[in-house]
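Take a record:
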Amino acid sequence: MKKLAKLISLLICAAMLFSFAACTSDQENDNNTTTAQASVDNTTVNVAALKGPTGMGMSGLIKDDGQFKVSIAASPDEIAPMIIKKEADIVACPLNLASVLYKKTNGGVKMIAVNTLGVLSVLENGDTVKSVADLKGKKIGATGQGATPEYILNYILTANGIDPEKDVEITYYQEHAELATMLLEGKVNIAMLPQPNVTTVLVQNPTIRTALDLTEEWEKATAQSGKQTSLAQGCLVVRTEFLNEHPEAVKAFLNAYKESVDFTNQKPDEAAAVIASSGILPKAQIALKAIPNCNIVYIDSDEMATIAKANLEVLFKANPASVGGAMPDDNFYYTEK
C-alpha cells in the first residue's frame, strides 16, 4: 500500500509540473503574440512622388493600394510644401531637394533611401561624339540650368579637361519637351536630356543615338578624384516627427517600397500600365521602354549615406545653395535597418 500511495503521489506531482509548464508556455506564447502585435503599425502613410523616374518605383505600391497612399506631383515645387505642411509623410524627390528640406525645416526630415540613380544622357543627331572629349568645341542643348543637371554636366566636362564656359557652347532650355522637339526637328544636333524624354526621342526618331550615358561618365569622373561613386538623382525622405511616432510604419513602408521597385524592374509590362494610368508617365509604351534605362533602385542604410554624401559634395562645391547652403550632418541619414 505504501508503495502504491508513493506512486500515486509521484504521478500527481508529475501532472502538476506538466500543467505548470503548459501554462508557462501558453503565457510565453501570449506574451510573444502581444509583442508581435505591438510591433505592427497599420497607420496610413501618405506618400508623394514626382512624375518621371523618381516616382516610377512606386508602381507596386499604387497597384496594391493598401496602407501606403501615393499621390503624384508634377514638379519639385509641389513636393516641398506637402511635407512642410504635413500633407505627406514620405516623399520621393531629387537628392538635392532633400538636403534643402533638411536645412529649411531644421532637421525636420531624414533621408531613408536612394531610389533613382542617373537618368541623364547626351543624344546626338549624328555620329561625331564617341567620348566626352569629343564635346569640345560643340554646341549642346541642355535643361536644368541652375539645378542638378547643370552641375553634373559641368563636373563631367571639367573632369575631362573641358571648360564649360570656354570650350563648349551650352544653350539651356526651360522644358525637356521643348529641347526634345528641337532635337527631333534637327534644330539641335547634340542635347543632354533625362529619361523618359530620352526614350521618347529615340522612339520617334531611331536615327538619333545615345552618344554618352552620363551615369557611366560620372563614375569615370569620380574615379579620377579617387572617390568613385554612383550618380544618384532621386531619394526618399520622411518627416522626422512621423518617423519618431511611427517607426514600425516607416520600416513597413521601406520593405514594401523595396518590393515595389522589384515589381517595377522585374515585371515592366504590368508596371508600365500602372505608371501610365497613375499619371507618372503619359504612355505605357514609353514607360515600358524607359524602365530598363531609368536606374530605379532601392539603396538604404550606410550605402545610401555614402552615395548621397559624395553626390551632395559635388553639388555643394558647384553651388552651396543647391543643397541648402551647407552640407547636411549625419543626423540627416536614417541608417537603421
About this structure: The domain at 120-224 is CATH 3.40.190.10 (D-Maltodextrin-Binding Protein; domain 2). The longest strand covers residues 109-117. The chain has two domains: 45-117+231-332, 120-224. Residues 95 and 234 are 5 Å apart (CA to CA).
